[in-house]
Amino acid sequence: MVTIEFKNYSDLFKVAKEKLPTNNLNDLSAKRLILAGNGSVENGWEPINTALLNNEIIQGSERIDLKKYVQSGRTLDALVLITHLKRMFRSKVVQDRIDGHKNNPLLQSIKGLNEFNLYFADELEKYTKSGILRFRPEIEIIKEMLSDKEELLDTLFLTLNWDSLAWNEESLGNVGYLHGNVLNPETMFMPSQYLSENAEFYSFLQLKSDLFSDEEKNILVKGEKDSILFGLTHLFTNCLSTCEELILWGIGLNIYDSDIVSTLSAAPFNNLKKIKIINSAGQREQILNHIDVLIPEFKGKIEYISAK
């Protein structure tokens, strides 16, 4: 394969320099767009389960026990719970502060919830380095598509996962993370969460810039690299509008994929000619029905590849 020089955009995007000479992610487009979800990896839930089993969501809380969620096979529900607790606690803290009261216990609870991003990142890296967390065999199908330079440059591999598998796999070429990654734990966000937590919080700060101390803002506002997430919906929509081929690998398009589903349903798809789906045989009917609802005007070819 011909050597290609890549540019790193805040550890969330790695794009060939000749693909994006402007160095502006807003100008990024792709003829082929690959969207990979949790179903594209093996043992994807194991590091998340480990983190939830080894850490308490709220110190000393007996009512909220994430271990029970994991033990009953409801890990995804546990992630959604973290999202909504954080949003609920933060709204309460803001309202109390507007009313002239402090709520330090809730601030500490939010700080504890934030730390789960670090726990998840640590476990994901451990499982990746050990080889337990790895791409499913269908990665060979993807690699075959990208076997020459032109195909590689014309393709963008977007993952919804947090792990570093895509980042470390040089044969994937142009890579981007829509949901953040372990290189920047503050950018990782949970199912049903907004792309940028800061986006909704900044509106509160506009009421009064000195409403919170710098220390409190560090708890309530995600790190500075969260700012790159502001433009990801626009970037994603732009890539969908220009792509001729859309590949969905390991994505169920269920209610927890709300940000992806809403973007797919609103995207213009000006050039789309082919959709390729890589998923289990058992999900074929459900996913094809979702596609029919999300992109009702699509008249091109749909190919379904049953995963091993």
Characterise this structure.
- The chain is α/β, with parallel strands linked by helices and 308 residues long.
- It has one domain.
- Helix content is 42%, strand content 14%.
- It contains twelve helices and ten strands.
- The strands form two sheets. Strands 1-2-7-6-3-8-9-10 form an eight-stranded mixed β-sheet. Strands 4-5 form a two-stranded antiparallel sheet.
- A hairpin with a 3-residue loop joins strand 1 (6-9) and strand 2.
- Helix 1 (46-54) packs across helix 4 and helix 3 (75-98) runs antiparallel to helix 4.
- The radius of gyration is 20 Å and the shape is globular.
- 36% of the residues are buried.
- The model has no long low-confidence stretch (mean pLDDT 88).
Topology as a string of helices (H) and strands (E): EEEEHHHHEHHEHEHHHEHEHE
Overall structural class, as computed from helix and strand content, comes to alpha/beta
Number of helices, where a helix is a run of at least 4 consecutive DSSP H or I residues: 12
Helix content: 40-55%
What best-fitting shape do the alpha-carbon axes yield? globular
Give the arrangement of secondary structure elements.
Layout: E1 6-9, E2 13-16, E3 32-36, E4 41-42, H1 46-54, H2 66-71, H3 75-98, H4 104-130, E5 134-135, H5 139-145, H6 149-153, E6 155-159, H7 165-168, E7 174-177, H8 197-205, H9 214-220, H10 232-242, E8 245-249, H11 258-266, E9 274-279, H12 284-294, E10 301-306
Parallel strand pairs: 3-6, 3-8, 6-7, 8-9, 9-10
Antiparallel strand pairs: 1-2, 2-7, 4-5
Helix pairs in contact: 1-4, 3-4
Protein name: SIR2-like domain-containing protein
Organism: Leptospira selangorensis
